[in-house]
Amino acid sequence: MKAVVFHGVGDIRLDEVAEPKIEKPNDAIVRLTANAICGTDLHLVRGTLAGMKPGTILGHEGVGIVEEVGSAVRNFRPGDRVVLPSTLACGNCSYCRVGYFAMCDKANPEGPDTAFYGGPSGSGGYQGLQAEKARVPFANINLYKLPDGISDDQAILLSDIFPTGYMGAELAEIKPGNSVVVFGCGPVGQFAIASARLLHAGRVFAVDSIPSRLEMAQAQGAEIIDFEAEDPVETIKGLTSGIGADRAIDAVGVDAVRPHHGPAGKKAAKKKAEFEAEIKEIAPKTGEHGDNWHPGDAPSQVLEWAVEALCKAGTLSIIGVYAESSRVFPIGNAMGKNLTVKMGNCNHMRYIPMLAQLVKSGVVDTGKVLTQSEPLLDAVEAYKQFDLRKPGWIKVKLEPAVPSAKAA
C-alpha cells in the first residue's frame, strides 16, 4: 500500500509499505478514506520535535471503514464507518476513566508521554495514518462510529483539530461575556475561535499575518489583528480600554514566527539573537530545502505576547505543541499578573461524541476550515505547500490512493 514515510528531517517520501495486520486481540484494521496534514506533522519534518525514526509512517488524523477486528473488540464490526482520534488510550486505567485519555498509563509502551500515531519513538512507536490502511490498537476505545449525515470532509476535522480547539477554549476557562484572544489562525486556531463562540465569549480577537486566515477568522466574527501591520499587544490593550483580554489561547506552538515589519517587527528584531539561541537548542538538526522545512524563527514569541496581552488574573491556554527542549517562558510577568496557565495534549475521545452531534446538527460547519483536498499520490507536494503557509492553505485533506497507483 502507499504511505507517506519519514526518512529524516526534511526528507519525506511516498513509499510502498506492507499492509498492517491484527497483532493483538483488541486491534482493528481500518481502510482509510481520508487523512490530513497537521501542523504537528510539520514540526516533525522541520526538526522542531525530535526523536522521529526513519521509516515511520506520518499522520495522526483519519476517517475510514473498519475492515477487520480482533477477538476482544466487541463494539465494532467490519463495514462500520469511523473516525480515529489522534491520541491513543486504553480505556481502563485511572486516567482514562476520568477522561484524561491523552494521559493514558497503558497506551504508550515507551513511557508516560501521550501516545499518538506517526510520532517520535517516545510517543509509542505507532505507525501513522497517512496511508491506505492502519492498525488501531485498543480499538474498542480508539474508534468512534460516525452517525449518518457527516461527510469525510467534516469527519476528518473531528479526528484532531476540532477537539483540540475546543479543549483550548475549555482550558481557557471562558465564561459568558469574556474577551478572548486567539494567537494563530490556522486550523486549530479557527476551531478555538469557533469554540470560544460556543462558550459564549463576548469578544474574540484573532492574531495572525496570513490574509486568508484572518479573513476566515473575521467571517467567524473575530476582531482580526495582523501582527505584521500592528503591535498585537498594544492593539489588544487599545481595544480593551488598556485592560487586556480576559483569556488567551496559544494555537501556534514551537514554530512561531516573529513579525518582520511594522511596530512589532522593530521590537522583535531586538530579540533576534535570543530567538536564534532558542532555535539552536530546540532544533539542533534541521533539513531546510529551498523554501521548505524552515523552523519558525521565534519559538517563544506567542508565549510572550499572550502573557503581555492578558489582563490581571487572566487565563492562558496553551494547545500549540512545544518541544521537550523548549525552555523559555515569561514566568515572572505571568506571576506578577496572577495569571492561570493551563496546557496539554488533547483528550480527544472526551470531546468527539459531543462535537460530532454539533456537526451533524449544523451548529458548527467544519467544512469551512478544509480548503485543500489532494490525492495521496500528491501528498509530498501538499506537505510542501502547507509548510509554506501559502494563502488559502488552511487545512489539507489527503485522499488515499488506489492500490495500483505508483509512487511519484
Structure write-up:
The protein is globular and about 60 Å long. Helices cover 28% and strands 22% of the residues. It is an alpha/beta fold and 408 residues long. Strands 3, 5, 6, 9, 10, 17 and 18 form a 7-stranded mixed beta sheet that branches. The protein has 13 helices and 18 strands. It has 2 domains: 212 residues, Medium-chain alcohol dehydrogenases, catalytic domain (Quinone Oxidoreductase, Chain A, domain 1, Alpha-Beta Complex), CATH 3.90.180.10; 182 residues, Rossmann fold. The two termini are 14 Å apart. Strand 11, helix 5 and strand 12 form a beta-alpha-beta unit.
Q: Count the helices. How many?
A: 13
Main beta-sheet annotation? 7 strands, mixed
Strand content: 15-25%
Structural class: alpha/beta
Question: What's the CATH class label of the largest domain?
Answer: Alpha Beta
Q: How would you name the CATH homologous superfamily of the largest domain?
A: Medium-chain alcohol dehydrogenases, catalytic domain
Molecular shape: globular
Q: If you average the pLDDT, what whole number results?
A: 95
What's the count of strands?
A: 18
Quaternary state, please?
single chain
In the predicted model, the low-confidence regions spanning at least 5 consecutive residues are 402-408
- What name does the CATH topology of the largest domain carry? Quinone Oxidoreductase, Chain A, domain 1
Radius of gyration using CA atoms only: 20 Å
The CATH architecture of the largest domain can be named as: Alpha-Beta Complex
End-to-end gap: 14 Å
Question: What proportion of the residues is helical, as a percent range?
Answer: 25-40%
Tally of distinct domains: 2
